[in-house]
Design a protein that fits this description.
Length: 377
């Protein structure tokens, strides 16, 4: 227990020190040092991935600084659009290179990571430190319902796509995905509006004791905008390196593109946010921790994935909301067990251990899944 008492992100890891890996990636890719990118694809992949972690954290800090100065409603819109900015940039670049399967895998991986890994670690470490923890059961019930709805929204196009494929109705496939995507975006907007209008006094109380959560300086509006712009530019560059090295890395390490998309990419894009969720759980703010974990999952399913469907229209390869059976099984398992854990409004360390166990089982399954095996829909 004593080990957890003084836990903080700064003591665990100073994320900003990882920015040095961005310089290494640039030196390899642009300056031709260390032999250049040819033959160093694994090093380019690793260094650019590590550099994205602090850059994503800086985007989060800049968004937080902007939100505190622009009011609650603008804050909600900012978090809706920038909450998963790092992963959105990575997936857009992947779409531009035709890696649609990688993008779909990363969407599923982000949902799994938040529901099982982040929530699991939060409940496990928070439970060890504080014993039984309680959170808002009404909000948890709403999120649990939305989780089941999100799974259904992603599963229905996948199941009905079988009939469309048989008659080679490609236009109908795209229309179906676009229609579902539009409905999900509208639903996400309504959820955001509902959350903002029903924000109660408890939320204000949570902000009174948030020292330790804000790792960055108190930025002015100008400083926050500059930091946001520079961090976004950095992520664009690092993401280009990362995506460009995926195929050589897959060949060299023997991994599958599916494993990289469903496990590696989501972790890289969300580490900073994950650490915050775990930290606040240890500080006995499990309500905020669950909001981060479940809210981010819902944002991916109801906002990011649908937006990517429309962004893909700019490229040759179109993204359809059609997932393979392994992805659907994983999402259904994660949604079900997380909803069951959240419904009663209280948690303990063993429930966290259960969520982590499901995540590790899925990681092992995805790791041993051969890349050449036929993937049924």
């Amino acid at each position: 227990m004593n080990v957890l008492e003084n836990f903080s992100i700064k003591k665990l890891l100073n994320l900003n020190t990882l920015l040095i890996f961005g310089a290494v990636a640039v030196a390899i890719e642009w300056l031709g040092l260390f032999g250049g990118p040819s033959g160093n694809e694994v090093l380019v992949f690793a260094t650019s991935a590590l550099a994205i972690i602090p850059l994503a954290g800086l985007i989060g800090q800049a968004t937080e600084a902007l939100s505190s100065r622009l009011g609650q409603q603008i804050s909600g819109l900012l978090n809706a659009t920038l909450g998963n900015a790092a992963e959105l940039i990575i997936t857009i670049l992947a779409l531009s290179q035709g890696l649609t399967e990688l993008v779909k895998a990363s969407i599923v991986g982000s949902i799994l990571g938040n529901l099982l890994l982040v929530a699991g670690l939060s409940l496990f470490l928070g439970g060890l430190r504080n014993g039984r923890q309680r959170f808002n059961s009404r909000q948890a019930g709403m999120n649990a319902t939305l989780l089941v709805l999100a799974f259904m929204a992603l599963a229905i196009p996948s199941l009905f796509d079988v009939a469309l494929v048989e008659v080679n109705a490609q236009d109908a496939e795209l229309l179906f995905s676009e229609g579902v995507a539009l409905i999900l975006i509208v639903l996400y907007g309504l959820n955001l509006l509902y959350s903002l209008r029903n924000n109660n006094v408890e939320d204000d109380d949570n902000h009174d004791d948030d020292e330790g959560l804000h790792q960055g300086p108190e930025w002015s509006l100008k400083e926050a905008v500059i930091a946001l712009a520079l961090a976004t530019l950095g992520i664009v560059i690092m993401s280009e390196f990362l995506v460009g090295s995926v195929e050589p890395v897959v060949a060299q390490l023997g991994w599958t593109e599916f494993f990289v998309g469903i496990i590696i990419v989501p972790i890289v894009g969300n580490v900073a946010e994950h650490l915050v969720a775990v930290q606040v759980a240890i500080k006995n703010k499990i309500d905020l921790s669950m909001t981060i974990a479940l809210g981010s999952s819902l944002q991916i399913a109801l906002f990011v994935a649908p937006v990517l469907v429309f962004i893909s229209l700019l490229f040759q390869e179109k993204l359809l909301l059609v997932f393979n059976v392994y992805e659907l099984i994983a999402i259904s398992a994660a949604s079900l067990i997380t909803a069951l854990v959240a419904l009663d409004g209280e948690s303990n360390w063993f429930e966290g251990a259960m969520l982590l166990a499901v995540y590790l089982i899925l990681v092992l399954a995805f790791f041993v899944l051969p890349g050449a095996v036929p993937v049924p829909h």
